[in-house]
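Dear Dr. H.,

I hope your travels went smoothly. While you were away I took the liberty of generating a structure for the chain from your last submission, since the lab meeting agenda had it listed for discussion. I wanted you to have the full record in hand beforehand rather than looking at slides cold. The sequence, exactly as received, is reproduced here:
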Amino acid sequence: MQSHLLKLEPPYQIIACRGEIGVQIATLIVMEETCGDDGKYGITTHSHPVVTYMDKPLTRNNFSKRNSEIDEYPEPVYSVAYGEGVVWDKVECNECITISFTDIPDRKVSDLEFSDMVQEMLENIALEGKWQGLKLLEFASKLEDMGFTISDSPSICHCTLRVSEVQSVDYGDKLIIDTNRRDFPMPVPVMEPEKMLGWYKKLIRQYHLIFGKEKKFCFKSFYEPPYGDGFIDDAREYGFDPEHLTPAQQACNDVVKLLNETDFCKGL
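The corresponding predicted structure, in token form, is as follows:
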């Protein structure tokens, strides 16, 4: 095995992956010799980002002030992001998203771009089946530390929940419940409806801290009429039999009923 450090030149890419944000200042290229079943020689290469978190002076972020308004989260949120020349050894360059460059002073992220960046992180938390604190809020704080502004979004978000099968190297194939939209992903492990409701409340409270408390969420289930947004044939293609719901599909219906009785959904 051999490695080579390829230093990059400014302007540097600002990259994001799995809830982390950094300025890529170099690439660590790792090469290893391989031998195929036919005995032929080959080379496998891996490229890992080398990042710094110091593009902008880190300050206490605005989200921490909003955070103190919720009794459940009395402690302010800080970004633990000090470091120079940190190798993301668990991530390869092709897994990262380039969200800006260091020579762009006015950096903005739309709600859809924000959602794309947090989707995989939230899915991994759901696959693990254990809630992991203020991950959304921490990620938004890291964006702000890098000089980004997260743009506003419509005040009402209509979400259709459905059962999805997610494949993961670490956790295998598992069923989760998620929205059918790219914006505001809410992957939740299939559990008792009351436990899922608690998970959704924690997610939505963080979305409120980031995008404002005036945002309302309206939920419906893929498995309640009109099925599949009115297209029963399309719904059947996903293995849905309206006469025989699976336990996960029934749990999806049950948690939607609970969600629509909460304060952030009432009146919609």
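Two observations you may find useful: Residues 127 and 268 are 31 Å apart (CA to CA). The first helix runs from residue 63 to 67.

With kind regards,
E. W.
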